[in-house]
């Protein structure tokens, strides 16, 4: 049966890394709204032009725009046999819209990755991303930034423009105010699971696999 998975958790929790691993294993698309927006910014589309300044401040792009983007993406052929959403929903309004979009599809499995705030700040301030392929490289010293190449494609690593200290603070504030309430929104569903994310990525991956297996087994696929 199609697996429709969403990843909740604060910025820096490892949602993107885990979503990518999981998507590869399952052969389903990883749909990252942050990546889609960054591509729009790069391409200079109308949405990109509007989103750029908002993202650079660490705020959220408006719900209507985001719901429109996701609706269109989930309607594509490759998302019919399942998908992993990374970075959406981020507000209760987005979560409600997603429920409507899921009408007639297997229930979403919700994985909330939890990480203490001090660890998030440490991770985000030392995170590098590849300009070419978007791979995350954590723990690269800032001083080595210009000499370290992406291990997947050899591209140049740089700090994300919204990973600077001020913007990270704002993103965490926005997360607590707008996104954390989603934990309560989903908590009572039989497909909701939490995974502790302040562990080595391989360990998180194992626990996530287990959580998804368990969630789909107890649910039988319907909300
Ligand atoms: P991310 O890569 O998921 O950390 O997203 C980077 C930025 O893109 C966020 O800080 C927001 O400005 C914007 N963004 C991504 N997904 C959403 C969403 N679902 N709703 C609103 N803004 C979003």
In spatial order, strands of the major sheet run 2-3-1-4-8
Q: Are any ligands bound, and if so which?
A: adenosine monophosphate
Name the average pLDDT. 92
CATH class of the domain at 3-115 and 176-217: Alpha Beta
Low-pLDDT segments, ≥5 res: none
Strand content: 15-25%
Number of helices: 9
Distance between the termini: 14 Å
What is the C-alpha radius of gyration, as a whole number of Å? 17 Å
CATH superfamily of the domain at 3-115 and 176-217: P-loop containing nucleotide triphosphate hydrolases
Shape: globular
CATH architecture descriptor of the domain at 3-115 and 176-217? 3-Layer(aba) Sandwich
Number of strands: 8
User: Which structural class do the helices and strands define?
Assistant: alpha/beta
Helix content: 40-55%
Largest sheet: 5 strands, parallel
SSE ordering: EHEHHHEHEHEEEHHEH
């Amino acid at each position: 049966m199609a697996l429709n998975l969403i990843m909740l958790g604060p910025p820096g929790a490892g949602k993107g890394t885990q979503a990518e691993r999981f998507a590869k294993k399952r052969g389903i698309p990883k749909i990252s709204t942050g990546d889609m927006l960054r591509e729009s910014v790069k391409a200079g589309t109308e949405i990109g032009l509007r989103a750029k300044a908002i993202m650079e401040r660490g705020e959220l792009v408006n719900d209507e725009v985001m719901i429109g983007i996701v609706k269109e993406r989930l309607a594509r052929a490759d998302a019919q046999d399942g998908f992993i959403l990374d970075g959406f929903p981020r507000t209760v309004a987005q979560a409600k819209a997603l429920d409507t979009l899921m009408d007639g599809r297997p229930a979403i499995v919700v994985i909330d990755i939890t990480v203490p705030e001090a660890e998030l700040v440490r991770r985000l301030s030392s995170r590098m991303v590849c300009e070419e392929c978007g791979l995350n490289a954590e723990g690269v010293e800032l001083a080595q930034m210009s000499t370290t190449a992406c291990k997947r494609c050899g591209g140049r690593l740089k700090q994300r423009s919204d990973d600077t200290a001020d913007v990270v603070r704002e993103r965490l504030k926005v997360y607590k105010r707008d996104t954390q309430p989603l934990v309560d929104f989903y908590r009572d569903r039989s497909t909701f699971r939490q995974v502790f994310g302040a562990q080595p990525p391989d360990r998180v991956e194992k626990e996530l696999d287990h959580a998804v297996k368990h969630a789909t087994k107890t649910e039988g696929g319907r909300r």
